[in-house]
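Lab notebook, bench 4. The sequencing result for the construct came back, and we need a structural model before the next group meeting so we can plan mutations. Quick request posted to the team channel:

Model the 3D structure of this chain.
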Amino acid sequence: MVVAPVARLRVTGGLPPELCGGPVILAVNHIGPFDPVAITAACGAAGIAPRLMATGGLFRAPVVGSVMRASGHIRINRRQANVAAAVDDVTRALAAGSHVLGYPEGRITLDPGMWPERGKTGLARVALATGAPVVAVAQWGAHEVAAWGGFGPTVRALSRALVRRPVVRVHFGAVVDLSGIDPAAPGAAQRATDRIIDAITGELRPLRADEPRLPRYVDPVRPLTLQRRHRPAGTRPIG
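Done. Here's the predicted structure in token form:
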């Protein structure tokens, strides 16, 4: 297993039996570049094999790219004219009964506390259009294994992880309640996205109960910004 040398994986929760046959969308918080590896291992432990929505850069990478393509994962070409084609790919995958895993934040969180940021609406739009249930999945600890960017920082982080083997926790939580949202109503996708991020945040809190505000481990190369800080339910304006 790729994870075992650098981390101790702890998986809790799971999909309800009625969802195991798909289709289902797994919505996960994004905390570091090691996330796809940790999540894939966690899904294997949970007995599922979702198709990952991953950035186009992974598909161009040596070795990893060929594995991504052969495994049927879904390529997201961010900031390119054909990015919308990924929505059709995800819709077709769900129509075929697949499990699809994506990061509604659209990027590794840059929130100083490493809480989920305000989400992009693509995943919610697909959920509203297809009716596929969304399961909130929270993870914590993968940020200690690989650095945010650059070969040198990543090598140093991996070397540190080989010695420390941090605990990586992944929890498969509840189905997100998207009832009462009319897909045709203005702002529906954003409301659904907010509910998804709220649900992931709720599942994440117990995983980092001893780190409620700031993470103990801080990646020194990860930039920080409050630009996309998520406002939890109860603090957002009504309307």
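The radius of gyration is 17 Å.
Will bring this to the meeting.
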